[in-house]
Structure formats: structure tokens, C-alpha cells
Design goal:
about 15% strand; about 220 residues; alpha/beta; Rossmann fold; 2 domains; Arc Repressor Mutant, subunit A; two-stranded antiparallel ribbon; binds nicotinamide-adenine-dinucleotide; 7-stranded mixed beta sheet
């Protein structure tokens, strides 16, 4: 890797590039032009070139990028060319849906532990994984080599779940609850909220309608 200081926005775009490249690979593409990759990812080609420059020289002038090579290089540089063991805390509606989703394992994020504090849920089996008492989290993290925690507890229990995970030695957390977590500086937290996307789409539609209304008012003014 050329530079250690890769901006967070670049890392998010790289994750998107990998996802698009993997789809292209599944569809049988061996080479992709920077224009097609850029269009599919809704960024401009110069942004892609700038993002990839952190890792070295890619692409052949007039040909584009070799799909497999690019996937390998990005994944290798970002450390996602291996399996990351994960634990999920809070086996309710959302937790169960995530545990049943096969893509996590397929993409290298293997949920190997499912934890809950509800005695009625402990012992239940979801997708072949037994729900275990949260008190056993610390031992399980060490035994199973868990590095990432997913929090799917109610909002008022999320900090407690985070504390358990951090105490157990987990370094990264994906928090699906709407709680803002307080964590030490060396713990990485990502917040996942589907509603941000709903807001974003609703705002965009509203803005379009507002512009249309302004446009039709302007036309009406010209007619007067
Ligand atoms: N990110 C999103 O877009 C999104 C979408 C839906 C729900 N959510 C959030 O996900 C969370 C879960 O929602 P749900 O509908 O699955 O709730 P749920 O009530 O069905 O499940 C929560 C589970 O957490 C367990 N739990 C509570 N405290 C715990 C603790 N300290 N340790 C371990 N387990 C604990 C409960 O026993 C329960 O099984 C909520 O915070 C909700 O707001 C987020």
C-alpha cells in the first residue's frame, strides 16, 4: 500500500467498488472500463483513479481494469481477503434476520456467536447457531477468535452490549440500534440505520417536487 492515511470516505467507496466488481465477475466480465465502473458506482472516473492510487498502479490505458486483479488488490490491501469472526448481541427480530442471512459468511464475515440475555431465547437455534447467555461472551470471544460485534439490542441496552463486547476484547462494532455509543479511541464503531436511506429518498423526491412547482410558477408568471 502506498499510503497509510486513507480517508474514511475512500474506504466506503472501495467497499462499493468491490461489491460492483464481484457482481461483474459473477456475470463473467474479465475487464471493466473506468467509465463503466464509475457509472455503476455513481462516481466520476477521476475519483476512482484517485481512490485506487492509494494502492498502486491499476488499469491498462484503453483497456480498463482487470476485474479479478482489482478485487484481489483492494481486498488484500484492506484486510478483507480473509475470514473475520463476528458475534451478534440481541437475538430479536433484526438479530434473527441477520443470523439467517447467508451473505455475511459468503463475504468473509462469519457470525460464529449469538448472544442474548433473555432466558427464553438462550438455547434456541437460529441457522444452526445456538443462542448463548451474554455472560459467556468474554470466554466465547477468546475461544472463537471473535473480532467484530454486531449490536441488535433495544436502544437502551446498546451501551451495555457494547461494554460487554469491548471488555471481551472486540475491536470493531456495527451498531444497528439508534443509540450513540461511548467507546475508547481504539474501538471502531459503524452505525447502520436503514431510515437514513428512507429520509434521503423522501428528501430527494420532495426537493424535485419543490423544483417542479417553482418551475411551473415561473412559467405561469411568464404567461401573465
Ligand atoms: N438499523 C436499522 O435500520 C434498524 C432497523 C430495525 C430495527 N433497528 C434496531 O435494532 C434493534 C433491535 O430491534 P428488534 O426489533 O430486533 O428488537 P427485539 O426486541 O425483537 O430484539 C432485541 C433483543 O435484544 C435482547 N437484549 C436486550 N438487552 C440485551 C443485552 N443487554 N444483551 C443481550 N441481548 C439483549 C432482547 O432479549 C431481544 O431478544 C433496536 O434497537 C431497533 O431500534 C434498527
Amino acid at each position: 500500500m502506498k499510503s497509510e492515511h486513507i480517508p474514511k470516505a475512500t474506504i466506503k467507496r472501495l467497499a462499493m467498488y468491490v461489491q460492483v466488481l464481484e457482481t461483474l465477475k459473477r456475470e463473467g466480465s474479465q475487464v471493466v472500463s473506468s467509465e463503466l465502473l464509475a457509472r455503476t458506482c455513481s462516481v466520476n472516473p477521476s475519483q476512482i483513479r484517485k481512490d485506487l492510487a492509494y494502492f498502486g498502479e491499476f488499469g491498462v490505458r484503453g483497456v480498463g481494469y482487470h476485474v479479478q486483479d482489482l478485487i484481489y488488490s483492494i481486498k488484500h490491501s484492506l484486510g478483507v481477503d480473509r475470514v473475520w469472526k463476528c458475534a451478534l448481541v440481541g437475538v430479536g427480530n433484526l438479530g434473527k434476520a441477520l443470523l439467517r442471512h447467508q451473505d455475511f459468511k459468503f463475504r468473509g464475515f462469519d457470525i460464529v456467536g449469538a448472544f442474548d440475555c433473555d432466558p427464553f431465547k438462550i438455547g434456541e437455534e437460529i441457522s444452526g447457531l445456538e443462542v448463548v447467555c451474554t455472560r459467556r461472551l468474554k470466554d466465547a470471544v477468546k475461544e472463537l477468535g471473535i473480532e467484530i460485534g454486531l449490536i441488535t439490542t433495544p436502544v437502551n441496552r446498546a451501551q451495555r452490549a457494547a461494554n460487554f463486547l469491548i471488555e471481551a476484547g472486540v475491536k470493531g462494532i456495527i451498531n444497528y440500534s439508534p443509540a450513540m455509543l461511548t467507546v475508547p479511541a481504539d474501538i471502531y464503531v459503524e452505525y447502520v440505520d436503514f431510515f437514513h436511506h428512507f429520509y434521503s429518498v423522501a428528501f430527494s423526491i420532495t426537493l424535485d417536487r419543490h423544483q417542479e412547482r417553482l418551475g411551473s410558477n415561473d412559467e405561469a408568471d411568464e404567461d401573465d
